[in-house]
Amino acid sequence: MAFSPDGSYIASAGAENITRLWKTQNIFQHTLYTSIGTVRKVAFNPAGTIVTVTGTDKTIKLFNTNGIKLRTIKTRTTDVSDVVWNPTGNLLASTGEDKIIRLWQPDGTLVNSLAGHTNATVEKSDSLLCEEIL
Q1: SS (HEC) of 82-111
Q2: Which residues contact 60 (CB under 8 A, 6 or more apart)?
Q3: Would you state the pLDDT for residue 9?
């Protein structure tokens, strides 16, 4: 699940392999995505205008909050287990089972691939990171 930055939307993915976009006043808005495989991650861009959906079909799908698919980024090499936006919204970072972090422009252009992890990469919350530092 993910909240939009202003808290007005929540995107949720369930065991039925679809993603739904809700207004936080408990109003169902749109079914965004029916996955061929398992939905792994949903995330909003910093402006709250784009929802990204990743999964085991080796793609990153971008939707607007009206439920319209804007783009499909085909990673071609690995299931996508995580995706995050940079603070300005001009880059996405994705990772998967191949342990490579890929940086993408929202138009689908691959900017860079960062290798070096020996285990799967995962997003850590600030609290977990603080515990590791302490």
Answers
A1: EEEECCCCCCEEEEECCCCEEEECCCCCEE
A2: 52, 53, 54, 72, 73, 75, 80, 83, 92, 94, 104
A3: 92
Question: Does the structure show a pLDDT above 90 at 27?
Answer: no
Structure tokens at 83: 């995706």
Question: Which amino acid makes up residue 53?
Answer: V
CA distance linking residue 113 with residue 111, whole number of Å: 7
Q: For 131, list phi and psi in degrees, rounded to 5.
A: -60, -40
Q: Could you tell me how many residues make up the chain?
A: 134
| DSSP conformation letters of the chain | -EE-TTSSEEEEE-TTSEEEEEETTTEEEEEEEE-SS-EEEEEE-TTS-EEEEEETTSEEEEEETTS-EEEEEE--SS-EEEEEE-TTSS-EEEEETT--EEEE-TTS-EEEEE---SS------HHHHHHHH-
Q: How far apart are CA 129 and CA 93, in angstroms?
A: 19
- pTM for this one? 0.81
